Amino acid sequence: MKAASFLALQPLLGCSTQVLPMEGKPPHHTATGFRNYPVMPPHGTPGFSFMFNRMKAFFSNPEIPSDHTISEPRAIADFQRSSGELSVTWIGHSTYLLKTGGRTLLLDPYLTDLASPLPVGPKRYVPPGISLKNLPPIDGIILSHNHYDHLDENAVENLPGKENIQVFVPLGMKSFFTERGYAQVSELDWHESIEMDGLKLTALPAVHFSSRWLNDRNETLWCSWAIQSSSASCYFAGDTGYSPTLFREIGNSFRSFDMAIVPIGAYNPQNVMKAVHTNPEEAIQLANDIRADIIVPSHWGTIELTDEPHWEPPERYRKFAVKNGISDSRAWIMKIGETRTA
Predict the structure, then answer these.
(1) How far apart are CA 100 and CA 199, in angstroms?
(2) Please, which residues have CB within 8 angstroms of residue 66's CB and are 6 or more apart in sequence?
(3) 174-222, pLDDT tens digit by residue?
(4) Pick from 111, 121, 125, 108: nearest CA to 10
(5) Minimal CA–CA distance to 185: which of 204, 166, 164, 203?
(6) How far apart are CA 236 and CA 329, in angstroms?
(7) Which residues have C-beta within 8 Å of that of residue 310, sequence separation ≥ 6?
């Protein structure tokens, strides 16, 4: 069981090895794939206690606070009633429905139980706010990277209307979708933009990595996204560690965002996770660096990936927001299934 659990967790764990850039290509390209740039310092590897805790998590479920979720019928009704130029519905973890520019976008689709290539591994302890079979018609899918807790093969395979859905992915991920029946798939490198029915989508750097098995480390790109309509803008971080240089550059380039969806969970042990996952304080700093008005915390409250207590991320997030004079109206904490309008 230990070996199987380790294999299941491998795509979720970083790698400290740095490789050289590829001559004539952008500095994040390498001969075998991609790397973070600016280059992050090396980090540690998980020990026995980390792996033991992940095995225990597979066989247990935390007690869920009564205010953490809303019912699926209410979630569907609230989504259907939502209007305005920018609204967001939290499906769970890093999966969202985003309404903007008259279109409905599905961000980082993860809707089934396991986030693993094996029948063991990290598992969902809260059901999706809206299940796969009850999702509304989707106009577009936006993917940050290929990890199992962000890219669910079953959801991608069985999403209704996929022949008409436009898909936007980092470099190397196009075939994953075309092999499953999607005809309109666009791959983007960092800083490339594309238009979708009046929306402008820009792939931006993130501090992370990619893999879905043991032998494909960093063969495909990871990214964050800027999603802009004529009157609203949203930043979707996907998964990322913190880099003041990188995110201040994004803020300088885009000037401001109406909303930023930023990850606040999966940060302990810090010697392993700091290089690839922001903690709650860093997530708020990231949102400030890119000059976001509303902050939406993601990557928590759905699946146990690391060692911090399940309900610590939102507590630290709220405490840091209060300490820095950021009101609840700006620093949101959403319920799974909830829809809010910016």
Answers:
(1) 8
(2) none
(3) 999 999 999 999 999 999 999 999 999 999 999 999 999 989 999 999 9
(4) 121
(5) 166
(6) 19
(7) 62, 301, 304
Q: What are phi and psi of 199, to 5 degrees?
A: -95, 145
Residues 28, 21: contact at Cβ < 8 Å?
yes
Q: Pick the closest to residue 122 from 64, 176, 51 (CA basis).
A: 51
Task: Please write the tens of the pLDDT for every residue from 260-305.
Answer: 999 999 999 999 999 999 999 999 999 999 999 999 999 999 999 9
Q: Give domain status of residue 22, yes or no.
A: no
- Full strand arrangement of the beta sheet holding 86-92: 184-188, 166-170, 140-142, 103-107, 95-100, 86-92, 339-341
Q: Give the other-Cβ count within 10 Å of 219's Cβ.
A: 16
Q: How far apart are CA 109 and CA 101, in angstroms?
A: 20
322: left (phi over 0), alpha (psi -120 to 50) or beta: alpha
Number of domains comprising the chain = 1
Ramachandran region, residue 338 (left: φ > 0; alpha: ψ -120 to 50; beta: rest): beta
Strand order in the sheet with 199-204: 193-196, 199-204, 224-228, 233-236, 257-263, 292-298
Residue 46 included in any domain: no
25, 56, 155, 180 from 61: Cα distances, Å: 46, 9, 23, 32
Tokens of 99: 């309404």
Domain that holds residue 181: 2-10+71-341
Q: Is residue 57 part of a domain?
A: no
The answer to whether residue 45 is domain-embedded is no
Q: Which domain CATH number covers 297?
A: 3.60.15.10
Number of Cβ atoms within 10 Å of the Cβ of 37:
17
3-class SS at 304?
coil
